[in-house]
Design a protein that fits this description.
The chain is α/β, with parallel strands linked by helices. 42% of the residues lie in helices and 12% in strands. The protein folds into 2 domains: 183 residues, P-loop containing nucleotide triphosphate hydrolases (Rossmann fold), CATH 3.40.50; 50 residues. It has a 7-stranded mixed sheet with strand order 2-1-4-5-6-3-7, with helices on both faces. Strand 5, helix 5 and strand 6 form a beta-alpha-beta unit. The N and C termini lie far apart (69 Å). Pfam families: DUF815 (PF05673).
Length: 278
């Protein structure tokens, strides 16, 4: 084999150096023991510098759900048996906010939070390998999850929850929020079953995912008194006066009552008053 001329080798080396500068190597993955919360990119952990979470006592109208999630998370943080949790139900009723607030309340116990995007569910085994053996407890948070009829990724999540060869490690629990109780639409399962040899098996396969969660907590649309109580709680904390009729007109204009709508109204009140919300 004939070696290339020296000037060509030098040129190739310069081109390689230039390409390295244009596309530097990815930053090293974050230390899973150093930060309070992380985001999983599918290949690496990134520490979250500032996690926005309301204090638990500011989340109103979901007392039973709050008590259940807090108790389960506290047990997990202390190394005791704990459940994976599915939080399902009406939009804007505090499912995601509750997970983050519970984590905030238990940060002193060393509990870590890792947010996993819906599209990265198939990479959960890699994340499990990253966290397995770490001397720390984690909540893996998958927000606003649902699957359509033609998607099969739900099988990957079902496998890691229970029954897979490489199940999630003992120091990890999954907290998933969804607007759907079964994650997979029931009508899609029934439509598929209509042409199947064993219809019951198809429906069971499609709907079995939600059964893998030890706790399944429903969040339902709040009534008018609860909505006003949520507004009042936020307004009192931030020192904002409000008119009940104005608050009701606000929710009528949005076509729903929820904790999210109440918080948006309080933001409107703060804007009118020229105040910031810390």
């Amino acid at each position: 084999m004939i070696d290339p001329p020296r000037d060509i080798s030098a040129t190739l080396a310069r081109i390689a150096d230039a390409l390295d500068r244009l596309a530097p190597p990815p930053p090293p993955t974050a230390d899973p023991t150093a930060a309070s919360a992380y985001v999983w990119s599918g290949t690496e952990l990134r520490a979250v510098e500032s996690l926005r979470a309301q204090p638990l006592d500011r989340l109103l109208g979901i007392d039973a759900q709050k008590a259940a999630v807090l108790a389960n998370s506290d047990r997990h943080a202390r190394g005791l048996p704990a459940h994976d949790i599915l939080l399902w139900g009406s939009r804007g009723m505090g499912k995601s906010a509750l997970v983050k607030s519970v984590h905030r309340a238990l940060t002193g116990n060393g509990l870590g939070l890792v947010e996993v995007a819906r599209d990265d569910i198939t990479t959960l085994p890699a994340l499990f390998r990253r966290l397995r053996g770490v001397d720390r407890r984690f909540l893996l948070f998958i927000d606003d999850l649902s699957f359509e009829a033609n998607e099969s990724e739900y099988k990957a999540l079902r496998s890691v929850l229970e029954g897979g060869v490489e199940a999630r490690p003992d120091n990890v629990r999954l907290y998933v929020t969804s607007n759907r109780r079964h994650l997979v639409p029931r009508d899609a399962a029934e439509n598929e079953a209509a042409t199947a040899i064993n219809p019951r098996d198809v429906i069971d396969d499609r709907l079995a995912l939600s059964d893998r969660f030890g706790l399944s907590l429903g969040f339902h649309a709040c009534d008018q008194p609860t909505y006003l109580a949520i507004v009042e709680g936020y307004a009192a904390h931030f020192g904002l006066p409000f008119d009940e009729h104005d608050a009701l007109a606000w929710q009528v204009g949005r076509g729903s009552r929820s904790g999210r709508v109440a918080w948006q109204y309080v933001q409107e009140l703060a804007g009118r008053a020229g105040k910031t919300l810390a």
